[in-house]
Amino acid sequence: MLKSLPIGVFDSGLGGLTVAREIMRNLPMEKIVYFGDTARVPYGSKSGQTIKRYSRQIVRFLKTQEIKAIVVACNTATALAMDEIREEAGGLPVIGVVEPGARAACEASKSGRIGVIATRATIGSHVYSEAIQGIRSDASVIGKACPLLVPLVEEGWIHDKITDEILLRYLDELLEHDIDALILGCTHYPLLRSEIRRLIGDGIRLVNPAYETASELKRLLKEQGLDNDKLRDAGEPYPYRFYVSDEAERFAGFANSVLPVDVKNARIVPIEEF
Amino acid sequence: MLKSLPIGVFDSGLGGLTVAREIMRNLPMEKIVYFGDTARVPYGSKSGQTIKRYSRQIVRFLKTQEIKAIVVACNTATALAMDEIREEAGGLPVIGVVEPGARAACEASKSGRIGVIATRATIGSHVYSEAIQGIRSDASVIGKACPLLVPLVEEGWIHDKITDEILLRYLDELLEHDIDALILGCTHYPLLRSEIRRLIGDGIRLVNPAYETASELKRLLKEQGLDNDKLRDAGEPYPYRFYVSDEAERFAGFANSVLPVDVKNARIVPIEEF
Fold first, then answer.
1. Quick check: A49 contacting B, CB < 8 Å?
2. Is the distance from CB of B51 to CB of B267 less than 8 angstroms?
3. Does pTM surpass 0.90?
4. Cβ–Cβ gap A154/B45 under 8 Å
5. What is the mean pLDDT of chain B?
6. Edge-to-edge order in the sheet of strand A240-244
7. CA distance, residue A186 to nearest chain B CA (Å)
8. How far does A47 lie from chain B, in Å, by closest CA?
């Protein structure tokens, strides 16, 4: 039955697990098939053309997995390849992380001065500015590409003086513009949330699109009658499946540090063939 | 005529330009076809299996370009895919960056305590230790993976307090082992050469495999009668061709900051199809 099918979630690599985490918390009845493109990560420094091609391949793979909806848990892919993803997805509902994040930021901001930190590709696409100004034409959006944050998180230097310094350098420019809301526009950044909070103080609302995306997914599944309302039996198989294009073991290790569940293994998919 | 054919040089992205630069300086009569895999960069955090597959595709592409030899200007590919590269190359001479770097380090070191900084994949492969101990069995090799250095160079933070701090953290461990030679085992690292020199002082010899590889190439071409001895005529076309798998413009910009010649353009190759 359609309702009991899993949700396909994909990202350029590990970061999208922060979105999967929010879906697991907020929609505990739903099954997930996750794909992380660890052989070609990162997307954030690459061109739109390449990101579109990679995203199409991933959607084609996910469609072999009998899913009921797709969550694009990658800001860069959402920013640059949403049309192509919808086209490949056929009739399947597709949610990206940008719209829910933009909407939440518009609600969170009083002054309308909203900051966005993200990858070079996402900032270059101006997708957050456009989405925000579509909702709130008085808003001014200040974007800042932060290419070092993903490698810092992947190096594990999270509670670290050096990371604080790098964050401060990136954030200084935004703080000068007197923003009152800041979008964490890359799925790795929520892992730096408490450091960012400490550095910018309590006056600025932090918006985590991962959280907002899970809420939006919940709403959409309900609206379309696709939400799973049947409790799992004790004997049913593990509801989360993980696929990657490379380094399955490293992925499982990282996933276990991010997710509230145990990731037993991840399987490798030859994604170029899709 | 065979002697006048170009040399194929490849890397996971931009870093191999430091090798191309040494070839241009040391072998000014030689033509070069460079390929940088900018759509899938970096290799240093990926698995051997993936690096082998990508390297094979690149060699198949280079062979369509009528070349006389191949230089693997990527430490990670040299460390993990040399057998596959030689197999794909058929009879063409192939030089990697590891052997020349290891040989120079053995000559540079008095104590036999040699440090290597490189990507996670290169360090994990132990290829430098093996090469060094094959030449000098009394040597002890201390490796350190430095995954943040490539993103720092690509962010342009070269003369920067933060980069100094990160370098010091990575190098501290090596300095404790009282090394007297240090191999810059990733092609981006020569761009941090003067910072590293300043931080570690004059007592440690820095080994740049890019430089050693160009010397080795010169020797090999001469030995096999493949060295180009015909001066170019004024009317001859530009001797350097650049290909990438993505972001041709960004590549050309970076290339112009590294190379002693003008890079007019770089062309995109659909490398997955090879």
1. yes
2. no
3. yes
4. yes
5. 95
6. A94-96, A69-72, A7-11, A32-36, A240-244, A267-268
7. 16
8. 6
pLDDT at res. A264? 82
φ, ψ of residue B180 to 5 degrees: the values are -120, 5
Quote the ipTM score.
Answer: 0.89
Residue B234's pLDDT band, with cuts at 50, 70 and 90, is low
Q: Give the tens place of pLDDT for each residue, B117-157.
A: 999 999 999 999 999 999 999 999 999 999 999 999 989 99
Interface membership of B249 toward A (CB under 8 Å): no
> CA of B46 to nearest chain A CA: how many angstroms apart?
6
Spot the catalytic one: A74, A114, A167, A182. Answer: A74
User: B185-194 pLDDT, tens per residue?
Assistant: 999 999 999 9
A45 interfaces chain B, CB cutoff of 8 Å: yes
Q: In what order do the strands lie in the sheet with B205-207?
A: B140-145, B113-118, B181-184, B205-207
B158 close contact with A: CB closer than 8 A: no
Domains of chain A and any CATH numbers: 2-96+211-273 (3.40.50.1860), 98-209 (3.40.50.1860)
Cα separation, A216 vs A95, in Å, equals 8
For residues A263 and B92, give the distance between their C-alpha atoms in angstroms, rounded to a whole number. Answer: 45
pLDDT, average across residues B105-112: 97
Instruction: Using CA coordinates, name the residue in chain B closest to A152.
Output: B148
CB B147 to CB A165 under 8 A?
no
Please spell the DSSP secondary structure of A106-170, one letter per residue: HHH-SSSEEEEEE-HHHHHHTHHHHHHHHH-TT-EEEEEE-TTHHHHHHHT--S-HHHHHHHHHH
Chain A, nearest residue to B154 by Cα: A147
CB contact B147 to A (< 8 Å)? yes
Determine the Cα–Cα distance for residues A53 and A69; give it in Å rounded to an integer. 20
